[in-house]
From TrEMBL:
Family: Belongs to the short-chain dehydrogenases/reductases (SDR) family.
Pfam families cross-referenced by the UniProt entry: adh_short_C2 (PF13561)
One GO BP annotation of this record: monocarboxylic acid metabolic process
Official protein name in the record: Short chain dehydrogenase
Length: 271
């Protein structure tokens, strides 16, 4: 009889220790993640929720977004899906007002949604493709940062904004011209914006992933992906959860003295 009880205790000990030591440092914080249905945004949403944040999962992919909300709720986390096409300013205004409309504030805003252009040399890029990339990868981040900052300034409690740029914004990447230009703009938007609101306790940082194993790389095809891998000193693509770890660090109070910074996370890639 007593051996049975001992065996049961041994079986639940690992679970108990996980519960005891689980990092719940983001309990009480509200976070918005754009482009949250897949890839880096999905992993970021999961990690924010595991650490206790209430996560607003936002994307144009409703099915995948709602599936992620269910996944978060299944492990006891809190999340809601809000549709937002980041290429529409009115959608972003609605998204940023979602929490204040429920008498909650935005503590964390992760501006992650983005697309890559089909590889094309600059002199062959059509005006349509150029405009689409700049709108979706740069103007959208400007809107998200602008409206989140205004709300954070109004309630005077600070906040953390993380803009997902790319190492493509730090150096030349032939055939990815519009993407490079948009991401370089995101870096400037972050560093300049950060200095303007630093005294108000609002931190703005940019994360620059190198090639990371997500659907966005599909434009490069399998041959393109293996060429990318060969150029990464660590010899492999990044994983979306590795980028999420950095984003969530910048979202948390552990990074309380970091603002206006630009972080590469790329397995040592030289850009
Ligand atoms: N994967 C990489 O190699 C890599 C490298 C550097 C930077 N990034 C950046 O990371 C961010 C996330 O990309 P990912 O790699 O996870 O790609 P992904 O394709 O897996 O995810 C992108 C997400 O953005 C969403 N999205 C696309 N258009 C949208 C729109 N108009 N409105 C709202 N959401 C929209 C998609 O539905 C998807 O959920 C992007 O900004 C991307 O530029 C990725």
């Amino acid at each position: 009889m007593s051996t049975n009880i001992e065996i049961k205790w041994i079986a639940i000990l690992p679970i108990l220790s996980q519960i005891t030591f689980m990092d719940k440092s983001l309990v009480g914080k509200n976070a918005i993640v754009t482009g949250a249905a897949l890839g880096i945004g999905k992993e970021t949403s999961l990690l924010l929720a595991r650490k206790g944040a209430n996560v607003i999962v936002s994307d144009i992919k409703e099915e995948e977004g709602n599936r992620l909300v269910n996944e978060i709720q299944n492990f006891g986390g809190t999340a809601s899906f809000v549709y937002c096409d980041v290429s529409r300013e009115e959608d972003i205004i609605q998204l940023t007002n979602y929490l204040p409309n429920q008498n909650k504030r935005i503590d964390i805003m992760v501006n992650n949604a983005g697309i890559a252009n089909k590889p094309t040399f600059m002199h062959k890029v059509s005006t349509e493709v150029w405009n689409q990339l700049i709108l979706l990868d740069l103007t959208s981040v400007f809107w998200c940062q602008k409206y989140a900052t205004k709300l954070m300034l109004a309630d005077k409690k600070g906040g953390s904004i993380i803009n997902v740029a790319s190492i493509a914004g730090l150096g030349a990447s032939p055939s990815l011209g519009p993407y490079c230009v948009a991401k370089a703009g995101v870096i400037e938007l972050s560093t300049t914006g950060a200095l303007e609101v630093a005294k108000a306790g609002i931190r703005i940082n940019a994360v620059c992933p190198g090639w990371t194993e997500t659907a966005i790389l599909d434009v490069a095809g399998e041959r393109g992906k293996s060429a990318m891998e060969k150029n990464i000193p660590m010899g492999r693509l990044g994983k979306p959860n590795e980028v999420a770890n950095l984003i969530v660090f910048l979202a948390s109070d552990e990074s309380s003295f970091i603002t206006g910074s630009v972080y590469k996370i790329d397995g040592g890639t030289r850009s």
